[in-house]
Amino acid sequence: MFKVNKGIDRPPEVLGIRGMDFIYYLAGAAVGLxxxxxxxxxxxxxxxxxxxxxxxxxxxxxxxxxxxLSQQYxxxxxxxxRGRKQQPGVVLVRDSAVYRQxxxxxARRA
Length: 110
Prior knowledge:
By secondary structure, the chain is mostly helical.
């Protein structure tokens, strides 16, 4: 079995993938891909060897992608990237009332 718990204050690491977000995404991708493979087999009549060969091939590609992302961005890399996308690129202020309010709040603190 794989050694998951590596000690206190250390993130879980499974097969070189650090952080629970990456592990959850890889597990969800594996389950979703398995469902797609079953649909291809039963609805379209693709042979099992070809369907599961494609399943393993795509799963290996996803594993290498997630392992590379995990190594590059660290344990919480997915959340950091998602947070950067949600931040506005430019903040437009068209009224000087914002600056007056800011001046009032800083004057009260001093």
